Amino acid sequence: MRYILFFLFISPIIYAQKQSNLSQKKWVDSVYNQLSFEEKVGQLFMVAAYSNKNESHYSNVDELVEKYNVGGLIFFQGGPVRQAQLTNRYQSKSKIPLFIGIDAEWGLSMRLDSTYRYPWNMTLGAIQDYTLIEKMGKQMGEQSKRLGIHFNFAPVVDINTNPNNPIIGNRSFGEDKINVTNAAIALMDGLQSEGVFATAKHFPGHGDTESDSHHTLPVVKFSKKRLDSIELYPYRELIKSDLASIMVAHLDVPSIESRKGYPTSISYNVVTNILKDELKFKGLIFTDALNMKGASNFKQPGDIDLEAFLAGNDILLFAENVPIAIQKFDEAFKSGKITEERLAYSVKKILKYKYIAGLNNYKPIEIINLYEDLNQSKYDAMNYSLYESALTTLKNNHNVLPIQNLENERIAYVKIGDDDSTFFLNELKKYAKIDEININKLDDALEELKKYTTVIIGYHKQDGAWKNHDLDVSELNILSKIAKDNKVIVTFFTKPYSLLKINNFDNFDGFILAYQNNNFSNTVAAEAIFGAVGTKGKLPVSINKDFYINDGLNTKALNILGFGAPENVGLNSKILAKIDSIANFAITNKMTPGAQIIVARRGKVVYDKSFGYHTYENDMPVKNTDLYDVASLTKILSTLPNLMVEYDKGKINLKTKLSVMLPVFKGTNKENATLLDMLTHQARFQAWIPFYKETLDSLGKPNKKYYRKKYSEDFPIKVSEDLYLAKGYNDTIIKRIAESDLLPKVKYKYSDFSFILMKEYLEKSTGEKLDQLASTNFYSKMGLTTMTYNPLNKFNKDQIIPTEIDNYYRYQTIQGYVHDMGAAMQGGVSGHAGLFSNALDVAKMMQMYLQKGKYDNNQFFSEKTFNAFNTCYYCKDKNRRGLGFDKPQLGEAGPTCGCVSMTSFGHTGFTGTMAWSDPESEIVYIFLSNRTYPEAKTNFLSKESIRENIQKVIYESITD
Q1: Which among 713, 712, 692 has a CA at the least distance from the CA of 703?
Q2: Disulfide: which of 34, 356, 381, 931 matches 565 by Cβ 3.0-4.6 Å?
Q3: Confidence at residue 3, expressed as pLDDT on a 0 to 100 scale
Q4: Please, are residues 805 and 888 in contact by the beta-carbon 8 Å criterion?
Q5: H-helix or E-strand containing 251?
Q6: Burial, 767: exposed, middle or buried (Cβ in 10 Å; 0-12, 13-18, 19+)?
Q7: In this predicted structure, what is the pLDDT of residue 166?
């Protein structure tokens, strides 16, 4: 019964296949029978076409299509829109739809501007997960198909056993036949799954040559046995996997072609006896370009085409003179050298593949959105994955990778190589403070480097498949001398063969090979150095006797933020891009002069942008590295995490009373306020007291009783530029809080008092000032290089965004000093305000919370503690707050878009800031602005729900 059911199930499939084959044969025979001899011969030619030339060239191609009925075009340099327009033009003139081919080994950008570029094969050869390569091939096929391309002349399956190979090199997956084969099959499967034919090349094997067949005829001296064992192995396996086509190279291989200097591309023994008969290949066979000197030096145009056809090739690529070639074919046909059977064999095969490609129902290329379709963000996501998977760690003495315990590190960066390394350096600076050391004066630099615990060296050369990446003598000297006396981590953004010049690797503590020099490789290399990703790539080639095929050490990933594309983490980049318009709307309508916005998911920052300017004068654009006054975010970024540490140690609990934490409050109306009630804002505290008003004179100016313009022992508290407050005034602030009335009944009332008092508790409990405590406990360990109080002590004023033109207290532009008046009166360091940061460092803190106290190699507090603080204790009383954290609204009004989970948490700030994390969606969202500039009156940013609308877009972009 089982067999009957199977037959009943499979028989409709077999029937459909038979019907398809009948339709295909009918179309092929019908077209073939309508062709004249010259038109049949024309189908054998695929001629060169460019989209960056003039009308004269385009007209010449028109003539080849219309008059000589060529079967296809191979496009070279140009651009995608121009190529699409020309393809439509040529197709409209062709009696039979044309094959369109292109060399796109690492994507269309190999030939076309404004198109996408993937890693070279050598980089892919380091990847152990072949499904990634298949997915990449699928994307390449998708792009080719969109551009009306039927053949991608890839993959290169040459096994590059010769490091001095001048033409293959990075185009090969490496020197191991198994790895080359597996990677090639993956790429082929991806391409062909999109209906684009793959072409394996360069048969029978161009990997162990020392000359370039574009310029001469390379000699391959191996025996037939060796060729069978190594070079032909990938072809056998790809043929078993339904490879569509193969390209035959111009090589001199005496072991399989006895005629001296006779190119393999025109050898009957190579093409027919070996490829067709021995390997049983039934697909299309292309010659390599017939204008290459490896072929054209041997015979004249026309003659070389005929010889290639007689050898068994189906399609003659880049013929130099089609009219003469057709004439030669005509003569050969009349003399009996070419038979109708032989012609029909290739032409019908070509027509068969045209049918498979859908050219029996040809449709022109749609020009609209072509550029956008060829450059989608999902392709960036793929590149991040590819380059990350390729990263190869060759040395990791004493586990120097990834760098940990940042609080104990002082890191220097040294650049070698002649290409720019600014991007890499900036990526490194996202994880730690890095000082670049100039090596123009090497002896001075070596002396300077002694001050550092770790030296990172980046070797950058221009990214190009055929570029020379060799180290020169001076660069080798620099590497050697720095490595001799320092702990060194070296990263090479070059091809593996660039390592051949290094005679001794002993002094390198860490060594990473990133293979290529571009933003993706630089980003993931920086991630690996600090542990945002682990490395798992394996070397695809040998490097002298130092490193061998498949060498590569796995390094661990830590729980720190990394970087990627939205599609890496299940977000839609097109939807996420709507954030730009919302931010620009806010700036255009003067709700804020500028902003920084970050979106992260699953530990990856996928949106990190700055908008607008420091002020409405538009004099200084906001940069990602600029610092904002984060206002009340200070509560959860400084005071709260340190309280959580105290709680985790058992020093305090939810029932701990204020009088226990601060004995000065014994006997006051606040002595019985518990930690729980204070942090949930229902301890009956007043919202705030304008302490500063009590220090102004009758004209509303700073009273000389309390202020001086210069620092002194009696007036040491710097409130702003040239304004110092009398010492001991902090005690007055605490006294005023202690004496203030309580609200008449218990209810939720947001108050700064709790966090002002928590600062007092922390400093008395630990013996450290809050700013130092926060830095020691968290910021220095997490690599938060911008998060600080009193930023003018560390940063240039131009890097700090101004918050207000103060015309009521300090009477100056507030820039680099805390905006909050009470915090200013505490010397810029308070529990409720005072912190400055860029968005990235805020995101790191929020990621630490999302990971329940874990970040880098640190467990700052327990998961149990985090859960206690992220609980809504009084939701039943319509108080949404957690312990210190704000939580989603319980009704319509609140701090979020209303689309976040109830387990989410965060805070907002008066200056126009917001930080929010959601454990369920794994999203971190940061919004920093200076909406209070030039004056903090109507909060239009809040009225227009700008922060909330951006958050809504983020959640709308989720795809999984």
Answers
A1: 692
A2: 381
A3: 39
A4: no
A5: none
A6: exposed
A7: 81
CB-side exposure of 349: number of CA atoms within 13 Å?
Answer: 19
Per the prediction, the chain carries an average pLDDT of 96
**Residue matched to tokens 């313009």:** 709
Distance CA 545, CA 201 (A): 30
Q: Which helix (H) or strand (E) holds 183?
A: helix 177-193
What token pair was written down for 594?
Answer: 């500028």
What was the pLDDT predicted at 119?
A: 98
Tens digit of pLDDT for each residue in 918-933? 999 999 999 999 999 9
Question: For 730, which DSSP code?
Answer: H
Largest Cα–Cα separation, the chain = 120
Q: Cα dist. 760→181, 618, 633, 755 in Å? A: 67, 40, 18, 9
Per the DSSP assignment, residues forming a β-bridge with 905 are: 917
| pLDDT value at residue 210 | 75
How far, CA to CA in Å, does 492 sit from each of 287, 304, 631, 875?
37, 44, 42, 55
Q: Which two tokens stand for residue 37?
A: 């001899």
Report residues of the chain scoring pLDDT below 70.
1-19, 212-213, 293-294, 296-298
Structure tokens at 627: 């610092």
**What tens digit of pLDDT does each residue of 789-842 get?**
999 999 999 999 999 999 999 999 999 999 999 999 999 999 999 999 999 999
Residue indicated by tokens 């062909």: 192
Element (H, E) at 347: helix 340-356
Residue 169 sits at φ, ψ, to 5 deg, of 50, -115
In this structure, which amino acid lies at residue 639? T
Residue 451, classified by CB atoms within 10 Å of its CB into exposed (0-12), middle (13-18) or buried (19+), is exposed
**CB-neighbour burial class of residue 690 (10 A; exposed 0-12, middle 13-18, buried 19+):** exposed
**Element (H or E) spanning 723, and its range?**
strand 723-725
